[in-house]
Amino acid sequence: MDDAAEAPDALAPLPPSVALYLDEIARVRRLSSHTVEAYRSDLIELLRLAGDTPLPDLRPTDLRRALARLHGGGAAPASLARKLSAWRSYYAWLGQRGEAGTNPAAGLRAPKRSKRLPKALTPDQAVQLAAHAPATGPLALRDKAMVELLYSSGLRLAELVGLDWRYFKPERGGAGSTSWLDLGSRQVTVLGKGGKLRQVPVGGPAIEALRSWMPLRDRMATDERALFVSSQGSRLSARSVQLRLAKLATALGLGVHVHPHVLRHSMASHVLQSSGDLRAVQELLGHSSIATTQIYTRLDWQHLAKTYDDAHPRARRRSG
What we know:
Number of domains: 2
Radius of gyration: 27 Å
């Protein structure tokens, strides 16, 4: 590859093999025009990086160098993964036509995407949301109970809407409960990811809110099992929970978009900040690997760093 070669003109004629490949994925494979244009752009990028070397002559080391140059120029891992996918597809097509030997992109991998930190509310925001005084009506009391339970127990959205109000035994060949509330024991049992059953404690405010909701639930429900039901009495959908929670956060003026997973992240972050017990948080969240839970240590560090910057006299930058 000639690093000093000029970049090809995007409007200049493409090499015959590239033009034919793009025509085939458009007409035969019927890929969308957006996808075809993205592949065109990625292959033009490869032509630029290849310089005077014909694309069929490139080796894995050449493509690895091309990825490194793009990464060094600031290309995001997701963008590099897309380019590599386009290059791999093009070389596979060349191979099918007998115009290339091994696929030089076959064994290459784009840089890993950095893990995004989960969003979490501040403790004050989370308490304000969970402890809000509900408006009148059964749906407001239901929403209050849902928010309290999400923040208290760190449930996933699917786990929340799948809860039965008590345990139901299998009857007449039917399935028994897989996730249920036990008010007396102050805990929920949920079937999480990977079919893992776990028990999670429920805090006092959430228990109180659930007890306020239960008599109304009994009058409204057409689904005999569901803990949370809609105004029509059927089991509440995940989408309805998302919409109601976002509406509530807006009404309270929190200034942030709130969805159920935010409350799960907030619970985990706040428990870790207070206790420092990573293993306990892992059990509460139902993570199979401690590595998944360790991301909350980064959230905890962010919290500590901000507190330090705000409070330590020598951490403040002097103006002027």
